[in-house]
């Protein structure tokens, strides 16, 4: 098993299509396994009500984000809905060097970038039990107009086709089972 050093841990990346339940899995993992460190992304979007700088995200301007890209300070970054999001490199490297189990929850584009920048990372694909279940979950949110759902479903088809690029897949039939498998992989 590859690692980042003699006392280091290997970075675990969780990705999968929109609506598959990544956020739910991560929330349960944080609740049941507080020893796992979840990377906090940096974003150019404005904070939403109730969000705190450094908790949900690090909120920065476009100039600072550009500086971070140019300096190589981001493991990965992507643009989504007119805003940019990225993973700061230094906190991840520090946690890994300290032997802390470290998790990134990112999209397919980000996972591909991490594969390039940290080839020893373990890329885990979270898959839906079926296409119908994924569609049902996206529609069941009831928070988005039909055109947004249609875009997410189209993106979901592309993301599902990329499953073979990952080291392994976990089917999200039960959140507790997925968390158990992730913890076992991170140890």
From TrEMBL:
GO molecular function: GMP kinase activity
EC category name: transferase
Location of region: Disordered: 1-20
Compartments reported by the entry: Cytoplasm
Reactions performed catalytically: GMP + ATP = GDP + ADP
CDD domains registered for this protein in UniProt: GMPK
Pfam families in the record: Guanylate_kin (PF00625)
Keyword field: ATP-binding, Cytoplasm, Kinase, Nucleotide-binding, Transferase
Amino-acid positions noted as binding ATP in the UniProt annotation, renumbered to this chain: 16-23
InterPro entries the UniProt entry points to: GK/Ca_channel_bsu (IPR008145), Guanylate_kin-like_dom (IPR008144), Guanylate_kinase (IPR017665), Guanylate_kinase_CS (IPR020590), P-loop_NTPase (IPR027417)
Domain Guanylate kinase-like, chain residue ranges per copy: 9-187
Function recorded in the entry: Essential for recycling GMP and indirectly, cGMP.
Membership in a protein family: Belongs to the guanylate kinase family.
Protein known as: Guanylate kinase
Lineage, opening ranks: Bacteria, Bacillati, Actinomycetota, Actinomycetes, Streptosporangiales
């Amino acid at each position: 098993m590859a690692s980042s050093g003699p006392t280091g841990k290997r970075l675990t990346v969780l990705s999968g299509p929109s609506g598959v339940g990544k956020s739910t899995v991560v929330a349960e993992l944080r609740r049941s396994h507080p020893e796992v460190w979840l990377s906090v992304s940096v974003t150019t979007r404005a904070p939403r009500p109730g969000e705190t700088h450094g908790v949900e995200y690090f909120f920065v301007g476009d100039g600072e984000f550009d500086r971070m890209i140019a300096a190589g300070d981001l493991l990965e970054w992507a643009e989504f809905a007119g805003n940019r999001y990225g993973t700061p490199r230094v906190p991840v490297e520090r946690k890994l060097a300290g032997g802390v189990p470290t998790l990134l929850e990112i999209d397919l584009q980000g996972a591909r970038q991490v594969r390039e920048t940290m080839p020893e990372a373990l890329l885990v694909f979270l898959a839906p039990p079926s296409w119908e279940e994924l569609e049902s979950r996206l529609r069941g949110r009831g928070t988005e107009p039909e055109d947004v759902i249609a875009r997410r479903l189209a993106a979901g088809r592309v993301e599902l086709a990329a499953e073979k690029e990952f080291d392994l897949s976990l089917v999200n039939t039960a959140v507790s089972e997925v968390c158990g498998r992730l913890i076992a992989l991170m140890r």
